[in-house]
Design brief:
The protein is an alpha/beta fold and 148 residues long. Helices cover 38% and strands 14% of the residues. Helix 3 links the parallel strand 3 and strand 4 (105-108).
């Protein structure tokens, strides 16, 4: 007997530690790729201002994200999403605990923390581009077939 195919997605929440880099980049790339076909949001364990490099790589992709406000997981009703994608180990542990009695699907994509990369401005910007491009590929390959 074959397992049931994954259900179609209508809403996705991307979560990470501070909602400053990984989760807003994922939110932006999913919005760019799927438009209004998928409701997308992001949140973090704690709230921080958006990272300037993250905003820069989103602008390179054609997204103006400066007006989007960061959220914490306490401000979002996680159980109302079809899928939550955790992008940091801390966020994954939090979501596992919070969702253990829920039907919400949880994925863990361990994405590099670009803020930990040193070097020149260009080297740091390249790290943020790698995060953006990795997330875009995962969103396209893993979520794309499930979006109506």
């Amino acid at each position: 007997m074959n397992p049931a195919p994954p259900s179609k997605l209508h809403s996705v929440l991307f979560i990470c530690t501070m909602n400053a880099v990984r989760s807003p980049i994922a939110e932006g790339m999913a919005r760019l790729r799927f438009g209004k076909r998928l409701f997308v949001d992001s949140a973090g364990l704690t709230k921080s201002d958006r990272d300037g490099f993250a905003l820069a790589v989103l602008r390179e992709a054609g997204l103006a994200f400066e007006d989007d406000e960061p959220h914490t997981l306490d401000e979002v009703e996680c159980e109302s999403f079809d899928l939550i994608v955790a992008l940091s180990p801390e966020a994954h542990r939090f979501a596992e605990e919070r969702l253990r009695a829920s039907a919400v699907e949880l994925l863990f994509w361990p994405i590099e923390d670009a803020t930990q990369i040193g070097g020149t401005r260009d080297q740091r910007l390249d790290a943020f581009r790698r995060v953006r491009d990795t997330l875009d590929k995962l969103i396209r390959d893993e979520l794309g077939p499930r979006v109506g």
